[in-house]
Amino acid sequence: MKLKPFAITLDPGSSLANRTGSWRTVRPEYVDRLPPCNHACPAGENIQGWLFHAESGHYEEAWRVLVRDNPLPAVMGRVCYHPCETSCNRAQLDESVGINAIERFLGDEALRCGWKFAAPAAATGRRVLVIGAGPSGLSAAYQLACAGHGVTIHDAGPAPGGMMRFGIPRYRLPREVLDAEIRRILELGVSLELNSKVTNVPGAMRDGGFDAVFLAVGAHIARRAYIPAGSAAKMLDAISLLRSMEGGERPLLGRRVVVYGGGNTAMDAARTAKRLGAEESIIVYRRTRERMPAHESELEEALQEGVLVKWLSTIRQAGESSITVERMQLDASGKPQPTGELETLAADCVILALGQDVDLSLLDGVPGLEVKDGVVQVGAGMMTGHPGIFAGGDMVPGERTVTVGIGHGKLAARHIDAWLRGTTWVHPPPHELATYDKLNTWYYSDAPKSRQPVLDTIRRQSTFEEVVGGFDEVTAQFEARRCLSCGNCFECDNCYGVCPDNAVIKLGPGQRYQFNYDYCKGCGLCVAECPCGAIRTVPEEI
Amino acid sequence: MSYQPIRFYQTGTFTVGNRLLPDEQRSVQANMRRTNSLNSGHRACQGCGEALGARYTIDAAMEATQRQLVAANATGCLEVFSTPYPETSWQIPWIHSLFGNAAAVGTGIAAALRVKGRHDVRVIAQGGDGGTTDIGFGCLSGMFERNDDVLYICYDNEGYMNTGVQRSSATPPAARTNTTMPLGQSAGNRFGQGKYLPAIAMAHDIPYVATATVAELHDLEAKVRRAMEFRGARYIHVFVPCPLGWGHDSAATIRIARLAKETGLFPVFEAEGGRVTHVSRIKRKLPVEEYLRPQQRYAHLFRDPPRRDVIERIQQLADRNILRYRLTDGVERRA
Ligand SMILES: Cc1ncc(C[n+]2csc(CCOP(=O)(O)OP(=O)(O)O)c2C)c(N)n1
Ligand code: SF4
Ligand SMILES: [Mg+2]
Predict the structure, then answer these.
(1) Does A171 share its domain with A208?
(2) Centre of ligand 1 from the C-alpha of residue B311, in Å
(3) Tell me: the pLDDT tens digits for A128-166?
(4) What is the pLDDT of residues B141-183, one digit of tens each?
(5) CB contacts, 8 Å: B7 with chain A
(6) Domain around A493
(7) CATH 3.40.50.970 fits domain B33-325
(8) Distance B242 CA to ligand 2 centre (A)
(9) B34 close to A (CB below 8 A)
(10) What are the extents of the domains in chain B?
């Protein structure tokens, strides 16, 4: 290829001598804005960041970015209620990006390929006791171990995982997946002591020579409701039912099962009952569908499996083979009020799913601890009123989800680490939010959201096989590429292209761009045509 | 058409480049070693569509001809802002002669090259809409009629911008210019006048005619590439918004061009041998008001009370284009 232009011999005086940058009254600047998915993630994942690598098919890199914030992607890719997707900007264009399913793909890919966490930082010689091997405790243990601290986890149960094992049924979370992800955390050198309930926290600290403690015992004492019941009536709570599913023997519930409550645990119990052979599995809930605390998708899946719901009903009385329910009515403030209308329902068994409380017995005699509304109070740094004792997960105020637990664990670990080093950890100032109006969506083509395969209903009603399937690689990559990269440069070359003054310097793959302020006239075209809102305009000092 | 839109490549499908695409599918403008035919330091206004369109076009032509290119340029903004003697922004062999004779100069260069046996060197003649549709029209029609081996590029900013925004025969109805002031009941430039050069070029039965805008780079580059595959007279009409003359925000240049296409006011198509062979369909049809409103040259239509009658007539022009060029047909059409 000839590169020398035809007929140019003399150098004409070049216009480069004319620094048109002096015309500028405003200047463009590259920025990284906070994508709404990252902003919404209770675990603080850098979602846009790991999707960026997944788009190129660099799955291991994507996974490594992901696990900086969350060591359980294969688990979370199954059980998280993905607030990220609810806030995804793409939802305003067509449908949100299937972040949760891609996370699962990465998590599964890591297990399949045997990717390990990076080796921990040099040992600090400090030791931290983590009480509770649920999501929050495991998350904190992982972060602390990565930072070089010695970590020991004590758990009262016979196996690690907390609610992930004893609350979430296997058809939503196969145990091989859970076991493998927990094993990978323990391989960092975290020691785990099972069947070892801590009753005296300061004592355990002293005896074990620990410098700090992270409490994450969860909430698993089932709440009761007073229901007059005949002596023959069979009643149990949802948590015991779900826990007993992890034992050898399957509980006998009978043909007609009634579940009382409207949360996610109620859904899990009703679906489990169905799988255990109940011909009828009926949820009795006192309010309406709109007011149900259960996640919409969980209710939807339960209904698909044939679970029935009796809305606006409370149980008045339970007998040997039937219960009496009363119809309710919502008053002006949305509270259910009795109507006096009674109805009898056949029921061999009633399962109570009315919420859970924290077992606070281990905190007896710990000075400085404050308990309010049944949960332990913590400061912004996740520390309780007792110096060196931190707490997180379901036992502190906040939404009770696995993801929130993981977020608490990470946050507490940051503060514990600082505390052990005699400093304080300050959250770096958050970037400005990359809202939808910052995008130029003309540049993105239409692409429908990918759907995950679902097990057929017959098998869902009779087995504990996993209901929702994962993406194959092609689908995962397609889905990742639906990401709009909100607020963060994805090197589309638009700024480099649309500048009428060649005032954008392309630095090469992975290096992004630079403005050449000698020539940039400040027209703002690059800002207007940046698809993802990664350039802003600031006034020039004149 | 030579350009296959990239399908199902969600991230930035329509962007200038794309880190995920193989090099050969990226645009010339994405290349770190593009010619930058029109270099920095030129004196075009902030956000000038003509400066942008010229670099897009000539860089693509340089690429298509392996950099064996000469250009003749009519008088107008493009010439004045790029080349205040002895300085120039052009990084190609470039000749300026007069306002009205760019096509004839192109013809002359082509003849000289033929005599010298330099078949590898290709010729471009270019100018604004004034230099093309008005004063240079005779020379251009001659160049077409003789089928001279020149690619003529018209940068259409719908007026004589360099001399301070006067009307040309490419100025659209109702637009305000300094010679079509909206005074009294008059609503700016008259309806029923002007000419549409792409159709006139097609009527000469020349090998290749195309229209394009600065809002669709991939399409524009593909058309330049395609044009260079032919010998003989070729014509590309590029729609280039002018922030100064049209009175829009300098950052809106590309958006305005996009709106001109999406409303149907500026049909984007390709014709070979006088026959339309490809039409870029409208992605999401918009009312003309969306295009008119951000431009000061139409401000008189939106006073109190607004000139609904005039806006409606402009809408009819867009609708006529949509019918005539089948701009909203379900699929990209090949004739
Ligand atoms: C014969 C002649 N008449 C008038 C002029 C003054 N003149 C210079 S540029 C120009 C208008 C150019 O308009 P257009 O071709 O549309 O280019 P634009 O500046 O809009 O890009 C005029 C009238 C001239 N240079 N030569
Ligand atoms: S007047 Fe219009 S065409 Fe001329 S340099 Fe300014 S923006 Fe460009
Ligand atoms: Mg003009």
Answers:
(1) yes
(2) 29
(3) 999 999 999 999 999 999 999 999 999 999 999 999 999
(4) 999 999 999 999 999 999 999 999 999 999 999 999 999 999 9
(5) 445
(6) 15-32+489-539
(7) yes
(8) 5
(9) no
(10) 33-325
